[in-house]
Amino acid sequence: MFSTSPLRIVAVSAGLSQPSSTRLLADRLAAATRERLAAEQDRNVEVRVIELRDLAVDIANHLVSGFPSAGLREAIDAVTEADGLIAVTPVFTASYSGLFKSFFDLVDHTALTGKPVVIAATGGTARHSLVLEHALRPLFAYLRAVTVPTSVYAASEDWGSSGDEYTEGLPSRIRRAGGELASAVLGRTVSGASRAASLDDGEDAVVPFEQQLADLRLD
User: Fold this and answer.
1) Residue 213: per-residue pLDDT
2) Cα(200)–Cα(198) distance, rounded to whole angstroms?
3) In 25, 192, 211, 212, which residue has its Cα 20 to 30 A from 160's Cα atom?
4) What's the predicted TM-score (pTM) here?
5) Distances (CA, A) of 145 to 14, 142, 171, 183
6) Number of alpha carbons in the 13 Å side-chain half-sphere of residue 129
7) Among 63, 79, 74, 173, which residue's Cα sits nearest to residue 117?
8) What is the pLDDT of residue 126?
9) How far is it, in rounded angstroms, from Cα 22 to Cα 76?
10) Cβ(135)–Cβ(14) under 8 Å?
11) Whole-number pLDDT of residue 211
């Protein structure tokens, strides 16, 4: 039977400041995912952004007491029940923030099994971009999630003035990652932002999502 329930996209932002470039990146990734999902199917798309800074005290209390507050429990449930997840952290000491890690420490290690995830991070310099591969991707591999191929790192210069090469690059990476997440949510592909093969997408554009998932399991 065809499902009419909305598709749920949840973005987790671990930014501490307000306004936050981490939250801005989460919002833009969510918007790109929503746009692609709306264009490719008829179901409604619900997007929610969870600000971990608002749950910091509840997270700390849960770590020492073992009992989540109602708000924290609801946030964890939203993450585990989402059709697609966007996880964005600032870089602290060459890794994800303690707040980001503490939140995902509270998520059952099997609750994200098979869930499509976009990983993203923000930092002051592009030198920290490898945090996506040496910290975030292994974290979600342990949680058995399926991270899409494109991860997004935004350094301070990526938010530069119009016409800057980095400004043109960041929106492109956001669109590609959002497209990959949307395709994975729909069970189609985990390739780039376009469903049709192109010079940019290469052979990945025609690889079924199920085959990609099977390959990941074999690895």
Assistant:
1) 44
2) 5
3) 192
4) 0.82
5) 19, 8, 25, 15
6) 13
7) 79
8) 86
9) 19
10) no
11) 46
**Who's near 131: CB < 8 A, 6+ residues apart?**
91, 94, 95, 96, 121, 123, 153
Q: Is 3 helix (H, G, I), strand (E, B) or coil?
A: coil
CA distance 13 to 172: 20
Judged by phi (left if over 0) then psi (alpha if -120 to 50, else beta), residue 109 lies in alpha
Residue 159: the pLDDT is 76
Q: Which two tokens stand for residue 105?
A: 């420490």
Q: Quick check: 102 and 59 in contact, CB under 8 A? A: yes
Taking the C-alpha atoms of residue 10 and residue 56, their distance in angstroms, rounded to an integer, is 18
Nearest-10 crossing angle of helices 21-40, 165-185: 50
Parallel/antiparallel/unpaired status of strands 95-96 and 152-155: unpaired
* DSSP-assigned letter for residue 6: P
Q: How far apart are CA 75 and CA 52, in angstroms?
A: 9
Report pLDDT digits (tens) over 128-187: 899 999 999 999 999 999 999 999 999 988 876 444 444 458 999 999 999 999 999 999
116 is written with which tokens?
Answer: 């499509």
Cα 103 to chain centroid distance, Å, stands at 14
Q: Is the dihedral of CA 189, 192, 196, 198 positive or negative?
A: negative
Residue 3: per-residue pLDDT: 62
